[in-house]
Amino acid sequence: MSITKNNTPRIRRSPEESRANILSAAESLLVQQGPQSLRLADVAKAAGVANATVLHHFGSIDAVQQALMERMIADLVDSIMAIEIPADAPAAARADGLKTLFDAFETRGAARLAAWLELTDETSRLTVVRQAVQDVAQKKISSAGVPSDSAEDLILLSVTLAVGVGLFGPSLGKLIGKPEGRARELTLQMLLGHLERLAG
């Protein structure tokens, strides 16, 4: 650690630590203020680094947004893969997997970031999605009794619904006088019923 001219300690980080610090700052901004807050100067300030440091590690703010979405996807996949599927209670494990998915898109701002990337034509750059879907489909859903040819369709349906619930479910529910969490509750019921039929 060294001291800058204004006597503020400057932390020396490895390139990996520096990237992780910037992404953590970006995620915090995303959750607190939404994707519109993911501007270069704001992310740099939140990370405690210069704008040039962000550009050095990512090249552009668009690349920061992409890397953040990829990290969120990787974290989600890790969480789903960690769910144990006991032979005597597969339905409970399926419910845990879907709840994990919906939590990711509701509580961490992932739905808003996904929508932002779609509206700015950046989703085509998310090359990790294909591998993530294949991993979950083959290693988790198929092993839980869902035919492999249906597993990717199930992920497509589940993620599409989770993004919709995370993005607009609470607002629409409130507008039409439904209890808080009703969109999520109904969607999970529908998906669990569909899963049960597939695994039947």
Main attributes?
200 residues, mainly alpha, 2 domains, two-stranded antiparallel sheet, 2 strands, disordered N terminus
Written account of the structure:
The chain has helices spanning 15-33, 40-47, 51-58, 61-81, 90-107, 110-119, 128-141, 148-175, 182-199; strands at 2-3, 9-10. Helix 1 crosses helix 4 (61-81) and helix 8 runs antiparallel to helix 9 (182-199). 30% of the residues are buried. It is globular, with a radius of gyration of 19 Å. The N and C termini lie far apart (59 Å). A two-stranded antiparallel ribbon has the order 1-2. With 200 residues, it is mainly α. It folds into 2 domains: 10-59, Arc Repressor Mutant, subunit A; 62-199. It has 9 helices and 2 strands, in the order ββααααααααα. The model is unreliable at 1-6 (pLDDT under 50).
Short description:
The chain has 200 residues and is mainly α. The chain has helices at 15-33, 40-47, 51-58, 61-81, 90-107, 110-119, 128-141, 148-175, 182-199; strands at residues 2-3, 9-10.
